[in-house]
Amino acid sequence: MQQSGQQHSSGLLASTPAWIAGVAAAVALFVPLYLNLEAGADWLVAALGLSRATPFGEALAFLLYEIPKVLMLLTAVVFVMGVVHTFISAERTRAMLSGRRVGVGNAMAATLGIVTPFCSCSAVPLFIGFLQAGVPLGVTFSFLISAPMVNEVALALLFGMFGWKVAMLYMSMGLLVAVISGMIIGKLGLERFLEEWVRQLQNSAVSSEFSAEALSWPERFREGVKHVREIVGRVWLYIVLGVGLGAGIHGYVPENFMAALMGREAWWSVPAAVLLGVPMYSSAAGIIPVVQALLGKGAALGTVLAFMMSVIALSAPEMIILRKVLRPQLIAVFAGVVATGIMLVGFVFNAVF
After folding, report:
1. For the segment 128-168, what is each residue's pLDDT rounded down to a tens digit?
2. Which residue of 39, 49, 234, 336 shows the fewest CB atoms closer than 10 Å?
3. DSSP reduced 3-state for 171
4. What is the Cα–Cα distance from 121 to 36, expressed in whole angstroms?
């Protein structure tokens, strides 16, 4: 039995150089390909006898450039975070947050949201798990807001499309919204508006031993590949649809129309963008190409980011799922507080950029 375990360990160790070589080769291929995507899209459009001066040519160039760009960024980020997640279990996360002071716990929960690749709907089960572990209600809401809105996918795509200044300001403002919203909800003492079965779960978690088994690097790399298959495999179609919508906006929607609808001159554009985003549902990867297309048509950055944040943090499907654990009064408070924070972000971005 011991000999078998040693053989298994040796097999894993023997495969470590192969995995490292494979990852290095992937990076060496990824970088030049990513840097030449735009030139490749232009070449393909020209090879088809089209011009970017025409609406169809411009839309096609946007499509050919953005689809591989978004998918490559998403694949790289999800693989890296899949490896990172092998060091952090959900049980450890809940244990880390329980018993923390108000403010400190909110900041920790919001920060943890950055490294969890969950959309608003898939973050709900962890929200329930936090409550079960005795994490305060306000702290759990800080995580619920931050996880979809300020995750690594959104930051990577914003960085790739708009630069580090926009990405960092977005992260800072998003974390601020998550922390302050969670603190406000916690201060209001709204636990009575949890559904009865959820209140019975609070502080009922059974302590369990964390696995002390150290994973090898090949196993961690396999987890990264597994994350890519699960997450990219689940959202790639939404990305294609989002880029397709963005391409249509980019090529065919008149600039004057979008500038009038989402321009910074119209004070009502930010609240209108938030209201428009709530009925929709998309991941950050699916909505950011639409954001880029809207900006290309003259829409104000703050207005468009407010639209994006409402889509991924206040979606109608999320509200439907939350109704299973929260009463309507608490859902209304949650939506109102977060919407106010998102509008503040929109106004700040419009004032700065």
Report:
1. 667 766 678 888 888 888 877 776 667 777 787 778 888 88
2. 49
3. helix
4. 35
Range 15-18 contact pairs with CB under 8 angstroms and sequence separation of 24 or more: 15/218, 16/216, 16/217, 16/218
Closest of 205, 6, 19, 198 to residue 97, by C-alpha: 205
Domain boundaries, the chain: 2-86+216-234, 90-204+253-352
Say if residues 310 and 274 touch (Cβ distance below 8 Å).
Answer: yes
Q: What are the backbone angles phi and psi of residue 125, rounded to the nearest 5°? A: -60, -40
- For residue 218 the two structure tokens come to 């090949």
pLDDT tens string 51-105? 888 888 888 888 888 788 878 877 887 787 678 767 765 566 666 665 566 678 8
DSSP state of 1: -
d(CA 264, CA 303): 7
